[in-house]
Amino acid sequence: MALLQHHHDSGMTILIVTHEPDVADYAQRVIELGRRDRAGQAGGRAPFGPGADAGGTR
C-alpha cells in the first residue's frame, strides 16, 4: 500500500477493486457495487457522475 500511496501523492489516480474492508479503508472514495440487498445505500447502482445519488460512496 505504501507504493500506491506514493504514486497517489505524486498525482496519480489509483483504482482498486477489493472485497477487503481494510484495503478499502485506504480509499478517499468507495463505490459499493453488488446485489441490491447487500450493496450499501446505493443498492447495487454505481452512484457517480452529474446528478447522481451519492448514497453508496464515502
Describe this structure in words.
- By secondary structure, this protein is mainly α.
- It has helices spanning 2-9, 21-24.
- The longest helix is centred in the first third of the chain and has 8 residues, at 2-9.
- The chain is elongated and about 35 Å long.
- The two termini are 20 Å apart.
Helix-strand string = HH
**Average pLDDT level:** 74
| SS content category | mainly alpha
How much helix, percentage-wise, in residues?
10-25%
Shape: elongated
The helix tally amounts to 2
Summarize the main sheet: none
Radius of gyration (CA) equals 13 Å
Task: State the assembly state of the protein chains.
Answer: single chain
Regions with little confidence, pLDDT below 50 for 5+ residues: 54-58
Q: How many strand units?
A: 0
Query: In angstroms, what separates the terminal alpha carbons?
Result: 20 Å
Strand content: under 5%
List the helices and strands and how they pair.
Layout: H1 2-9, H2 21-24
What distinguishing features does this structure have?
58 residues, mainly alpha
Short structural description:
The chain has 58 residues and is mostly helical. It has a domain at 15-50.
